[in-house]
Amino acid sequence: MEFIFHLSCYNDSALDEETVQLLVQRLEARSRKTMPAMWAATDKLNAYAAKGPGREKRRMRCRVYGAILLVLGIFLLVPGLMEPRTPSQIFVGGAAAVWGIWSLFFRERRSPALPASCRKEAAQLLETRRSIDWTLPENRTELRFDRAGLAIRAGEQTKTVPYSDMTAIYETEHLWLLLYGAEQAMLLQKKDLTAGDPAKFLPYLLEKIPE
After folding, report:
1. Contact by Cβ (8 Å): 150, 5
2. Which CATH code fits 3-42+115-208?
């Protein structure tokens, strides 16, 4: 089996957030490896919170409270906007209405904040990639994954990376992040895969990368 990439511009805006997500995956994987007991307890708590008793009651209670706040907010806001206007009433009514809408429609959609360190590292990684004009002959880069490992052909130079040097690979919708050597990272766009089945790339490398 063989997979070939020809690198191109990293100009898709979706890569900004996805690169952060990849680095968060790497951070969590390292944390799970160094602190397995803590993560085991965390996973149990998360599973209980997701499926435990009272979850539906809490969700319904939040929605009821949200509806009440929305009604009270409108009740205060409308008269407050009528002449003569009452700023304090407008503020309280508006705040109650906004809080009610959030409780009704957005409370369950919250996602955890991503670490600032991952955002900074992702920005640096993408800045480096985006500073290169991959269309120039001296920058044209081919990556070939085959039975022997990875062969990187950049301009007139060729470098090889055996699978034994690879440590991990992570995936998002448009990207793979391959780690190898001493903390080296390779950001691969799925659109750059010119030979090979994208659906088989991750399983193939997971079989090759040492545990």
Report:
1. no
2. 2.30.29
